[in-house]
Amino acid sequence: MHQEEDYLERLTDREREVCAAIAEGFTNREIADLLFVSPDTVKSHVASILGKLEVNSRGEAARMHRRITLNR
To answer: 4-70 adopts what CATH topology?
Structure first.
């Protein structure tokens, strides 16, 4: 896995918003409603986040997000 320090640089602003919402426990539908986009768009963002962060699940992405933002 890449260094976590470059986490913010790897994700787009929108992907960081989605990742933060995942870390808060929101579902794709809830994230879509929150960001005024379709659930399919959120699904696409989630897939991109998982790939960029080189993790296999939303839970791993959420843990990484929390760990990094708490240490800033």
So the answer is: Arc Repressor Mutant, subunit A (1.10.10)
- Taking CA atoms, 20 is separated from 5, 13, 36, in Å, by 16, 11, 16
Residue spans per domain, the chain: 4-70
Per-residue pLDDT of 31-52, as tens digits, reads 999 999 999 999 999 999 999 9
Whole-angstrom distance, CA of residue 60 vs CA of residue 23? 9
CA dist., res. 4 & res. 39, Å (int) = 27
CA distance 57 to 49: 10
